[in-house]
Design a protein that fits this description.
heterodimer; A: BirA Bifunctional Protein, domain 2; seven-stranded mixed beta sheet; 11 helices; 18% strand; B: Phenylalanyl-tRNA Synthetase, Chain B, domain 1; OB fold (Dihydrolipoamide Acetyltransferase, E2P); six-stranded antiparallel beta sheet; 21 helices
Chain lengths: 365, 832
């Protein structure tokens, strides 16, 4: 903007005097020093370094000077302007820092204000519990098999060596789809998924089957007409009860902590022979000074489920060569396992849908 | 099975110092699982002594009650030998009676501490005890008066009453019928401790002579053995010996009368159910056969029963009058032993277990006899058991054994099982050599023959009808050797395939919804008409066609649900009812639609079914798609210093559908629809890109909100997840996008209010051509300057080319083309 001055007035030549330039410079430096904030500095900048400031005006006059005088005047004015510009920049930097510090103080908030605008979501522990179990087995190379909850009677019972005169088949335990002579039931166990798996593909088979099952139990703190089981099935050459024990020990340690193992007691299930009840070493007291332990009620062990070597009759019904292959199977309640793992006292808490219960578990167990 | 420890010890000579806990642990180890150890006198501590009532002075009180001021001789038990003064409120005893007294310092069940205390003007130094106070029966509140010869005053009553005896309660699995007898429990105890065993059934019995009560068995398969003995001169008033009554009580049975108690006692002892008839009431010979059409029988429980005929019908014992008992399950009323019975006909018979089970189930009878007969009792001990009954009736009932002994039939002999000698080692993984395995089988009573080539032929003992297969032998070896010897070895499956695609997708849906603030619920799938009415479903709605249950828990909810909405709506109402201001819930699970394809066949199990048989089976199973339902009701964003609470509306449901669709890349599209239970004007149907309907979302109908007790404008959705998953790509393709500058153009279009935004948007999209990057509605306006029935839709259009910066001319041309097509399709006019 320092074009030729169209309003040339020789009277104003005097500012180019040595003294005048020094005065203008000193006044500018004093004003810069006195500027208290960025706004004041902005005004100072306009007044002392703007187009109409004395030094800017003086600069314009240089061109009008005789050539011999130009050089000196140019140097004087240039130095003065340089000093002002530098002072401005320095003051600007100082004030910016001051300004930022003040703003940061002024913008202080109460960080303890509530911020819960949106409620928390959660997945159900029965879902995430089943996933946790599935992940334990998938990590061992097993697969997760599923099947329908409304199931053929033959798959739920007969194929599993629960003959037509087995007590578990009475109306007391099983929900029958109407009419009963159509032989369709709400599955009472997840075992029909095992039967389906064997019917679908040849060994080796290593599957876990988590899922909903139904029994005609009245609903109370420890019983429910619907609950959840996980069953496992391994069919391969040379499978023994030792493999069953190893698998359950590993499962127990992953679910309940390193060092938690299992023990077997003789039992009876039509699906397996030999059959065993499997107990879990109490993961709270670990069998030490169990008397006071509320989790295992002083036993040192917790009843966990049933298991055994797959009855060759079942293998035959499901098309597996019982001469060549052996297998093991196990099953336990997911609901019950969660109850003692997390200290749930009333089974109904799992089915009421109260969000206060479910949100405590987040989206993974 | 409750087994008194003293009774077990009668047959097995346990090692010195074996505690009851140790005994119970070892029984558990070999397969008879301990349920509980009961001490009859649990909770009682002495001094509890016998006392003889010396005086009894009734003293009427102001409150209308009469108390008895008694003095009781308690021997030296009180330390002085002087009579004990006791106030007693009961009246069923008299001077001279032998009673049970608890003295000061004693404790009764329920931590009832006894001390001398002043009451009714006397110092009462203890209590005369009733049956219920002692915790040995609920029958009556009267004072327990003992037989005069039960003991002397001052004797320890705990011992006299057997209250110091321990009883082990064992869980007996269905395959171990022998465990339902002291004979069997003691045998397993002997096995567990390798201790000497005395079989109570090992006795000399008189031979069958054909002179006993005549018996004809028509159905030898149903009743292979029938033994009949008779005693006469029986004194029906003879009391049951105290020891016998006590053992019956300890075993959980109620003493009734000597004749009945003896049959029950022998059943507990041997495991062989016994039936006693009043011999004088029996007319002619006994005949065992299947019931015939139309026959009826009144059983001991006074029930009039219609009998089932045919080859699988009820087995009955008849006399000349017709059926007089359901064989092996329950006797008949007409020949019941009564208070005047002096001749007892004793029946000890072996019955076909399957027939027993069916009869019990058919007539809904559970009896101690039935429980044993349907699991299979030892068929070889009928004569011994009958003889034992006779012995006890003679000894305690003053009876005389009649000489005749009837035995019809012979016990079936168990089939030998052939197996490899090393089978147990191979199946259990326990390092057990053949010799050990064979010894274990012999220890449980099997006879074992080595047939060469490492094979064995094993004949199980007659009390083990469950041992039929080679693997049954494995279990016997394992339980003798010890289940604790099974090593722990991880199997090594090959590489697995991980979770299936659907399993992964289901997890993603759950995480997405939880991330959106929804909480998962798990509901029962049972519904009834009422809830379908609450949902306002029309009569012909497909969701009313349900899979029904033959035996629902509740007659009001007899069907398996066709929709997950009832579950989530009820759970939402429950949360709001418990004080939640707002709730967002979701559920995934199966629903069911009837197959209507007839019956599922019952196939054989001796081979794999053919593919055709399996197909027929699977066709009969109802379709069970996985659904997803969600509900949002009440406050969503909470009120706070940032502003007011936000409620719910149709858009929240559609937004959730959008989130699921975006997460899975399923490309779901919505369009207007009308379906209950949604608000008819605020219901979106959701479809895949190829038009497959997968569900609905929107606002719940106001009437349905009301019916479920939910606040207005609840947002709900239900999707068929299987169908959604089918639309999701297996592998998501990566997008390509330009990094040249974007050109933004806004257009406002005035269009008839009933034209869906989606239609206008689609026209803009197509008209704008390939330079269009995105189009998004950012404002809807009605009011001033807009004609009635019209609305102004403001869209933000973004243009971008993949290979250059667009010129103003290109952008303008694209925008104009977009507007032109919208105008042509929808009559939209661009607002100035």
């Amino acid at each position: 903007m320092s074009g030729p001055n169209s309003e040339y007035d020789p009277v104003e030549v005097t500012p180019l005097g040595d003294e005048q330039v020094a005065t203008a410079r000193d006044e500018a430096l004093a004003a810069i020093e006195a500027a208290a904030d960025l706004e004041a500095l902005k005004q100072v900048r306009t007044a002392h370094a703007g187009d109409r400031s004395p030094l800017a005006l003086a600069n314009r006059e240089i061109g009008a000077l005789p050539p011999q005088a130009r050089k000196d005047a140019g140097r004087r004015v240039g130095q003065a302007r340089g000093a002002v510009a530098q002072a401005l920049a320095e003051r600007q930097a100082v004030l910016e820092v001051e300004h930022e510090e003040r703003m940061l103080v002024e913008e202080t908030v109460d960080v303890t204000l509530p911020v819960d605008r949106l409620p928390q979501g959660a997945r159900h522990p029965l879902t995430t519990g089943a996933e946790l179990i599935a992940d334990v087995f998938v990590a061992m190379g097993w697969e997760v098999a599923e099947g329908p909850v409304i199931e053929a009677e033959w798959l739920n019972f007969d194929a599993l060596n629960l003959g037509p005169d087995h007590p578990a088949r009475t109306m007391q335990d099983t929900f029958w789809v109407d009419p009963p002579e159509h032989h369709v039931v709400l599955r009472t166990q997840t075992s029909p998924v095992q039967a389906r798996t064997m019917l679908e593909r040849p060994p080796p088979i290593y599957v876990v089957c988590p899922g909903r099952v139904f029994r005609t139990d009245e609903y109370d703190a420890t019983h429910s007409p619907m609950f959840h089981q996980v069953e496992g099935l391994a069919i391969d050459e040379g499978i023994t009860m030792a493999h069953l024990k190893g698998t359950l020990d590993h499962f127990a340690a992953r679910m309940f902590g390193d060092g938690i193992s299992t023990r077997f007691r003789p039992s009876y299930f039509p699906f397996t022979e030999p059959s065993a009840e499997v107990d879990l070493r109490c993961f709270v007291c670990r069998g030490v000074d169990s008397e006071e332990c509320r989790t295992c009620k002083g036993e040192g062990w917790i009843e966990w489920g049933g298991c055994g070597v797959v009855n060759p009759r079942v293998l035959t019904a499901c098309g597996v060569d019982a001469e060549r292959f052996t297998g093991f199977a196990f099953g336990m309640g997911i609901d019950r396992s969660l109850m003692f793992r997390h200290g749930v006292n009333d089974l109904r808490a799992l089915f009421e849908g109260d969000v206060r219960f479910t949100t405590a578990f987040g989206s993974e167990l | 099975m409750k087994a008194p420890v003293s009774w077990i010890r009668e047959y097995v000579d346990l090692p010195e110092g074996t505690s009851t806990e140790r005994l119970a642990d070892r029984l558990t180890d070999v397969g008879l699982k301990l349920e509980a150890i009961e001490v009859a006198g649990e909770g009682i501590s002495g001094p509890l002594v016998l006392g003889r009532v010396l005086t009894r002075e009734p003293e009427p009180q102001k409150n209308g009650k009469t108390i008895n001021w008694c003095t009781v001789d308690v021997g030296d038990a009180n330390g002085t030998g002087e009579p004990q003064g006791i106030v007693c409120g009961a009246h069923n005893f008299d001077v001279g009676d032998l009673v049970v007294c608890i003295l000061p310092g004693g404790v009764l069940p329920g931590n009832f501490q006894i001390s001398a205390r002043k009451t009714y003007g006397h110092v009462s130094a203890g209590m005369i005890c009733s049956v219920s106070e002692l915790g040995i029966g609920e029958d009556h509140d009267g004072i327990l008066v003992l037989p005069a010869d039960a003991g002397q005053p001052g004797d320890d009553a705990l011992a006299v009453l057997g209250l110091d005896e321990e009883v082990v309660e064992l869980e007996v699995n269905p395959d171990r019928a022998y465990g339902l007898s002291l004979r069997g429990v003691a045998r397993d105890a002997a096995l567990a401790f390798e201790a000497p065993y005395t079989d109570p059934c090992d006795r000399d019995v008189p031979h069958a002579d054909g002179a006993g009560h005549p018996v004809v068995v028509d159905d030898a398969e149903g009743c292979p053995v029938f033994v009949a003995r008779t005693v006469s001169g029986f004194d029906p008033a003879a009391p049951t010996p105290e020891w016998m009554a006590r053992r019956l009580t300890q075993a959980g049975m109620r003493p009734i009368s000597l004749a009945v108690d003896v049959t029950n006692y022998v059943m507990l002892e041997t495991g062989r159910p016994i039936h006693g008839y009043d011999a004088d009431a029996v007319r002619g010979a006994l005949r065992v056969r299947r019931a015939t059409e139309g026959e009826k029988l009144t059983t001991l429980d006074s029930a009039r029963r219609e009998l089932s005929a045919g080859p699988e019908g009820d087995l009955v014992v008849c006399d000349d009058s017709g059926p007089i008992g359901l064989g092996g399950v329950m006797g008949g009323e007409s020949t019941e032993i009564s208070a005047t019975t002096s001749r007892v006909l004793v029946e000890a018979a072996h019955w076909d277990p399957v027939s027993m089970f069916r009869t019990g189930r058919r007539h809904k009878i559970t009896s101690e006899a039935g429980r044993r007969n349907e699991r299979g009792a030892d068929p070889t001990i009928c004569e011994a058991a009958a003889d034992r009954v006779v012995e006890l009736l003679v000894a305690h009932g003053g009876a005389t054994a009649e000489p005749g002994v009837t035995v019809v039939g012979t016990p079936p002999s168990p089939a030998a099982v052939t197996a490899r000698a090393d089978l147990a080692a191979r199946v259990t993984g326990i390092a057990v050599d053949d010799a050990t395995a064979l010894a274990a089988l012999r220890a449980v009573g099997c006879s074992v023959e080595e047939t060469g080539d490492g094979s064995i032929s094993v004949t199980p003992p007659p009390w083990r009808p469950d041992v039929t297969d080679p693997f049954d032998l494995v279990e016997e070896v394992a339980r003798v050797v010890g289940y604790d010897r099974v090593p722990s070895v991880l199997p090594a499956p090959g590489a697995g395939r991980g979770l299936t695609r659907v399993q992964r997708l289901r997890r993603r849906v759950g995480r997405t919804l939880a991330g959106a603030g929804c909480v998962e619920v798990v509901s029962f799938p049972f519904i009834g008409e009422a809830v379908l009415d609450q949902l306002g479903l029309p009569a012909d709605d497909v969701r009313r066609h349900t899979v029904r249950l033959a035996n629902p828990l509740s007659a009001e909810e007899p069907a398996f649900t066709t929709t997950l909405l009832p579950g989530v709506l009820k759970a939402a109402a429950r949360n709001l009812g418990r004080g939640a201001a707002g709730v967002a819930l979701f559920e995934t699970g199966p629903v069911a639609f009837p197959a209507d394809r007839g019956a599922a066949p019952i196939l054989g199990i001796d081979r794999r079914p053919t593919d055709e048989e399996l197909a027929e089976l699977l066709a009969a199973i109802p379709a069970q798609p996985q659904h997803l339902a969600a509900v949002l009701a009440g406050e969503q964003e909470r009120p706070g210093w940032w502003g007011d609470a936000s409620g719910t509306g149709w858009e929240d449901a559609v937004a959730l559908v959008r989130r699921v669709s975006d997460e899975l890349g399923a490309g779901l599209v919505v369009s207007a629809a009308s379906l209950m239970p949604w608000h008819p004007g605020r219901c979106a149907q959701v479809a895949t890109a190829d038009g497959t309907l997968v569900g609905h979302a929107g606002e719940l109908h106001p009437r349905v909100c009301q019916a479920f007790g939910l606040p207005a404008r609840a947002a709900v959705l239900e999707l068929d997840l299987d169908a959604v998953f089918a639309a999701a790509p297996t592998v998501a393709p990566a997008p390509s996008f330009s990094t040249y500058p974007v050109a933004k153009e806004d257009v406002a279009l005035v269009v008839a209010a009933d034209v869906p935004v989606a239609t206008v948007e689609q026209a803009l999209r197509e008209g704008a051509g390939e330079l269009l990057e995105s189009v998004r509605l950012f404002d809807v306006y009605t009011g001033e300057q807009i004609e009635e029935g019209q609305r102004s839709l403001a869209f933000a259009l973004r243009f971008r080319a993949p290979d250059r910066t667009l010129t103003d001319e290109e952008t303008t041309a694209s925008r104009e083309a977009a507007v032109a097509l919208a105008a042509e399709r929808t009559g939209a006019v661009q607002r100035a």
